[in-house]
Amino acid sequence: MTPPAPSWLADVEVLAFDIFGTVVDWHGSIRREVERDLPGIDGDAFARAWRAGYKPAMARVMRGEQGWTLIDDLHRGILDEILPRFGLAHLDEAQRAHLNRVWHRLDPWPDAVEGLERLRRRRLVCTLSNGNLGLLARLSHHGALAWDCVLSAEVFRAYKPDPATYLGVARVFDVAPQRVMLVAAHHDDLAAARACGLRTAYIERPLEFGAAQPKDVTAREGNDLHCRNLLALADLMGS
Amino acid sequence: MTPPAPSWLADVEVLAFDIFGTVVDWHGSIRREVERDLPGIDGDAFARAWRAGYKPAMARVMRGEQGWTLIDDLHRGILDEILPRFGLAHLDEAQRAHLNRVWHRLDPWPDAVEGLERLRRRRLVCTLSNGNLGLLARLSHHGALAWDCVLSAEVFRAYKPDPATYLGVARVFDVAPQRVMLVAAHHDDLAAARACGLRTAYIERPLEFGAAQPKDVTAREGNDLHCRNLLALADLMGS
């Protein structure tokens, strides 16, 4: 049975969704494609190694050690770095470019399409992702995800957890920060949003890093909501 | 019967849609709301007067006479100017703010939702509008329009027909300009896109300015396609 919704929920007008890990399954999608196209490669380790370079790469940009760079290009830089470690240094330019675009072909978690559709009935729904706009567009097309707006680090020229991204959503929609709720599977993202005055909903994604590395998804203090998946969030929001 | 599609159409990967007049019926929506909420006012003339201030206001911004300004604010400035001419100088701040947001509640043309859904099956679909992101998001929500990406003058900090907007779409999607087709009901918009190397599709909207001022929608040289509405475009594109 769904518990009664807290009364402040009625004031939330905009739901901003983190994408990688929250709405789409980057680990499973990359693992499946790598194991299908590159026989003998450990897709599980490959997916995790690629993702592990992500935060350090963004941090270099945000510290100003590197000019503004789209995630597509950061992903490509990390890919070129890890390929030799997996015995794949021989992949040519076309193969690397194709593999890099696996991030445009990530599959949604099984609950995501229906959950989003239900949530969109009663709230404005947008992305708030570090992924670039072209990536998010192709991902949304691939997964048949329907947004009211597609917002990205590319629009704000800043990566999460920079406040410019969270406050940027409130500015775009011309609402107070507490009328925006960030929906994410990552506590650091949610904490940064909360510091800007946004509401926060944690989504459990225990298999984000694969079945071999289950994630601790126990509830933590601070988040306004804690939901198993997007269907549970829709239940809670009466959508 | 639908004529055979030209062979270059297969290379078009992205359809970028003008919004006001092409996808949504600004004139009819404003006329209906004004005549419902402000009895005695000529909604037809009011809608046209409001829209008539739109291009001059953007031109002032693009000439640098005014700093960067969102369409919501340009609409509000024009509204404040025309209200006295319609005997509505007495409207208070809340009434003006509400009326200004009619641009967030414009209804799609009858063919738009189904046309877009069909076109999205085979192509990436995005907005390319001078409307700001918040406006486009609420408009898309109101009309249940589903985009892969929502692009706006606000993203490029330039209004159409500035080349930065048309070329910006190609850049976001990382494709050559000729792989993008602008879909619009306005020849000047299409001509500017064509000058940037985009493909162009003209959509007939004879009633854009109301039944009292039918628009000449006869075909002109230059546009790659000429379609009655978005369903005809979907037919032509095999969607």
What would you note in describing this structure?
The structure is a homodimer of 239-residue chains. The first copy, chain A, has 239 residues and is α/β, with parallel strands linked by helices. Chain A folds into 2 domains: 8-25 and 106-236, HAD superfamily/HAD-like (Rossmann fold, 3-Layer(aba) Sandwich), CATH 3.40.50.1000; 27-104, DNA polymerase, domain 1, CATH 1.10.150. Chain A contains 11 helices and 6 strands. Chain A has a 6-stranded parallel beta sheet, sandwiched between helices. In chain A, helix 1 (26-37) packs across helix 2 and helix 6 (112-122) runs parallel beside helix 11 (230-236). The longest helix of chain A has 12 residues, at 26-37. The first copy, chain A, is globular. Chain A binds chain B through residues 72, 120, 124, 126, 132-134, 136-138, 140-141, 146-151, 154-155, 172-174, and chain B through 72, 120, 124, 126, 132-134, 136-138, 140-141, 146-151, 154-155, 172-174.
Could you outline the blueprint of secondary structure elements for this entry?
2 copies of one chain form a homodimer.
Chain A: E1 14-17, H1 26-37, H2 43-52, H3 54-62, H4 71-82, H5 93-100, H6 112-122, E2 124-129, H7 133-143, E3 149-152, H8 153-156, H9 163-173, E4 180-184, H10 187-195, E5 199-203, E6 225-227, H11 230-236
Parallel strand pairs in A: 1-2, 1-4, 2-3, 4-5, 5-6
Helix pairs in contact in A: 1-2, 2-4, 6-11
